[in-house]
Design brief:
Blueprint (H helix, E strand, L loop, with lengths): L3 E4 L2 E4 L2 E2 H7 L4 E5 H14 L5 E6 L6 H8 L4 E4 L2 H9 L7 E3 L6 H10 L3 E4 L2 H13 L4 E8 L21 E2 L3 H9 L4 E7 L10 H19 L6 E3 L18 H12 L5 E4 L3 H4 L3 E12 L4 E5 L8 H5 L5 E3 L6 E7 L8 E9 L6 E5 L20 E5 L2 E6 L4 H5 L11 H7 L1
Helix pairs in contact: 2-9, 5-6, 8-9
């Protein structure tokens, strides 16, 4: 169930009116429902009670520490892909023993830091990475616990830019070479082989690719056991899709996915790690924006809003669909092209979309933006990063403020030869 609804013709997130929030927080801004995030996590947890499992939130979906803290507080671990995400997870209270480090290009510095804090596991993606991790661990007199990310060559039937499990993708070890590299790793003094990892992509909307992947991974686990390599951990990644378009026949759900996971892994003597991201946080979020201009074009009516592609990149990058809602409920509808102010034709949220009639100065909300919204934003066109707000029942609070222009511009430094004599004196 979505966390937003109309009460007395006003859109609310949990028990807070969006209009009330916008009177305090200047648009555009993100707002997230804490209850929706907790509910999604609990649905995973409750449906996996009989399985030896650990749910590690994929921090890349939304890395605000208040979001990570919400999940850590009810038992979640973290799946991270950079030192920065690792530091965020630790600062938000995730124990190192519940953190897995994924990613195709871990540096020696990142490896050293992760080893120093004692994370649960590295998900290793290449033979080169294995050798570097082994040497880094030996230099620190540590042992790195690892799983190899296996590329099973399964088509996830998702957007090409978020497919990760086909043979032509950059991710993981080809399944045909897995046994060989496991045998190599087992002989390394700085490495402790613990598990197998797989992740075939994001926004999967059918269960079939998951099931095919899991069957291939189970065959590999048995083959490794025959080689004398016992697998204690099977990390099955994330990728569960979200019903962005509110389709009645949407096949996939957290409950159905967990039922399949239970069926496939209940008889294996291994800890099962899940790495959900989007399915935990996407539905929690709204992006609230104001109509700046209503412009009549030759073929379309444009709503030009104060949010832009630098704030929410998904529609421009993936042609992603997000529902658009008038903050004040109305009975009349019109068709609009909803666009932002950036000097790019791609700064478009929807084309020929039917929605409630809107006028200049009115508020609208873009739905289901809790994942891959704020984390993919930028300051393109020297636009200020927009605030993020957490809502809990009837309370709301800014969890990331808008940076002002002075702070943004101060990130740049002039080269020494560009400064005047008086400026150089001030520096001294």
């Amino acid at each position: 169930m979505l966390p937003f609804c109309y009460q007395n013709d006003q859109l609310h997130l949990e028990h807070v009116a969006i209009k009330k929030m916008a009177a305090t927080v200047e648009t555009p801004f993100y707002c997230y429902s804490q209850s929706a995030i907790e509910s999604a996590y609990n649905e995973y947890s409750n449906n996996l009670k009989t399985l030896n499992s650990m749910i590690c939130y994929a921090v890349k979906a939304n890395s605000n520490q208040a979001i990570i803290k919400t999940l850590a507080g009810i038992g979640a671990g973290a799946d991270v892909v950079s030192e920065g995400e690792l530091r965020r997870a630790l600062q938000a209270g995730v124990p190192p023993s519940k953190i897995v480090f994924s990613g195709v290009a871990k540096s020696e510095r990142e490896m050293s830091y992760a080893l120093s804090v004692g994370i649960f596991q590295f998900n290793v993606e290449s033979e080169n990475e294995l050798e570097r991790l082994n040497q880094t661990a030996l230099n620190l007199n540590k042992v790195a616990r690892i799983a190899f990310r296996i590329n099973p060559d399964v088509d996830a039937n998702t957007h090409a830019k978020i497919s990760t499990g086909k043979s032509e993708n950059k991710f993981g070890i080809p399944i045909s070479k897995a046994v060989s590299i496991y045998n190599k790793a087992a002989k390394m003094r700085g490495i402790e082989v613990k598990g197998v990892d797989v992740h075939i992509g994001s926004q999967l909307t059918t269960l079939a690719p998951f099931r095919e992947t899991f069957k291939r991974i189970k065959l590999l686990v048995n083959e490794l056991l025959e080689q004398g390599i016992a697998i204690e951990v099977i990390d099955i990644g994330g990728g569960l899709g979200v019903n962005y378009e509110n389709q009645d026949n949407f096949e996939i759900s957290i409950k159905r996915y967990c039922e399949m996971v239970n069926q496939e892994f209940c008889n294996l003597n291994a800890k099962i790690i899940l790495e959900p991201g989007r399915s935990l946080v996407a539905n929690s979020g709204l992006l609230v924006s104001q109509v700046v201009y209503k412009k009549q074009g030759e073929h379309s009516t444009f709503l030009i809003i104060d949010a832009a592609m630098n704030d929410l990149l998904r529609p421009s990058m993936y042609d992603a669909h997000h529902d658009l809602l008038s903050v004040t409920k109305k009975s009349t509808k019109e068709h609009y092209d909803i666009v932002g102010p950036i000097c790019e034709t791609g700064d478009t949220f929807a084309k020929n979309r039917q929605m409630e009639s809107m006028e200049e100065g009115e508020l609208l909300a873009i739905a289901n933006v809790g994942a891959y919204g704020a984390v993919m934003s930028s300051n393109y066109n020297t636009r200020l990063s927009i605030p993020e707000v957490l809502v809990h029942q009837s309370q709301f609070e800014v969890i990331k403020p808008r940076r002002d222009y002075e702070a943004l511009l101060s990130l740049d430094n002039l080269a020494s030869w560009q400064q005047t004599t008086s400026e150089l004196e001030l520096v001294k």
